[in-house]
Amino acid sequence: MTATGTPIAVVTGASSGIGAATARQLAAAGYRVVLTARRKDRIEALAAEINESGHQATAYALDVTDRAAVDAFASAFRTIGVLVNNAGGALGADPVATGDPADWRQMYETNVIGTLNVTQALLPALDASGDGTVVVLSSTAGHGTYEGGAGYVAAKNGARVIAETLRLEIVGRPVRVIEIAPGMVKTEEFATTRFRGDNEKAAKVYAGVAEPLTADDVAETITWAVTRPPHVNIDLLVVRPRAQASNTKVHREL
Ligand code: 8X3
Known about the structure:
Blueprint: E1 8-11, H1 17-28, E2 32-37, H2 40-52, E3 56-61, H3 67-74, E4 82-85, H4 101-128, E5 132-137, H5 150-169, E6 175-182, H6 190-194, H7 199-206, H8 215-226, E7 236-239, E8 244-246, E9 249-250
Bound molecules: 2-hydroxyethylsulfonic acid (8X3).
The site of 2-hydroxyethylsulfonic acid has 8 residues, from loops.
């Protein structure tokens, strides 16, 4: 708790998409939200928007793969109520035979090492709150593979394993570990980042899908899970659009 008694929620990757939507919703739910991302201008603008709406937010530019920077960030907090490990993403959709190892490495760095860095650094402050919550945004990709997905699937399996293992290791301490695994979510950047700005390829991901999930849909599931009473641990919440029955079975109206 802070001096004013308002619990803090740290959201990584808060500059857009699910992270930004989660920051808005957790702020509305009564948390003082700390927005982190590499792009300072974006998180500062979002923090200003949240503050103007009467809620509380601050922005802190942070690259989750930079451990020294993460440690410096963590040293500013004595207690933290919630950590949402949202920073991550996909790069490329090439088959195993031709995938770029540099893409695989970068996905491991952001999705796995980034989550590890921030979770390790903030765990003492989460513990100190007496009622902490760690959220790991994995993906349905962390629960089943698909052609062209191996690099991302491997990285999201890593994120999933952090959540599962940490929950075992800290049982008895006052910290919950929640994994949220979204399927197809249409955000402004996920697919265009994956395809390095190729809008045509990015559009194909969602082609003919009547209603992919939105960032707000996922932020609602995160906020719901986080705001359950402290003794209730939502271990895993898988959320997909109705049109997506599995990673490889999507209804498209083309
Ligand atoms: C995103 C889901 O299907 O693009 O995390 O791997 S998918």
